[in-house]
Description:
By secondary structure, this protein is mainly alpha-helical. It has helices at 7-19, 21-28, 52-56, 60-75, 78-81, 87-104; strands at 32-34, 41-43, 48-50. Strands 1-3-2 form a three-stranded mixed β-sheet. β2 and β3 (48-50) form a beta hairpin.
Amino acid sequence: MMIEVDPQLQSAILKVRSHSPFFGTLILFARFIKTLEIETVATNGNAIFYNPNFVSNLKRNELEAVLLHEVLHCALLHCARKGSREPQRWNIAADIVVNGIIAQQNTFTLPQ
């Protein structure tokens, strides 16, 4: 079954793939699900959920970074490795790691 993804998201996915074969491979296997139940973008470790209203307000390079951010959480198994740790502290620590990886690329721009 093919899940339809917004054209803006498809464009960002293609851009990530063109910037980096490694990250491009990771994002190629990601499953994106549109939802209004979250405010921004999130992952449960298996799928990436995105609010189309939030996505539509991002600049293209910001959207690429946000998608990569969530894909890296999946690739690094952050959801599975959380275990019994305090969720908010774990999420902050995981975000620091993921954002550091993205910043080292000098290609993607995370939104403020």
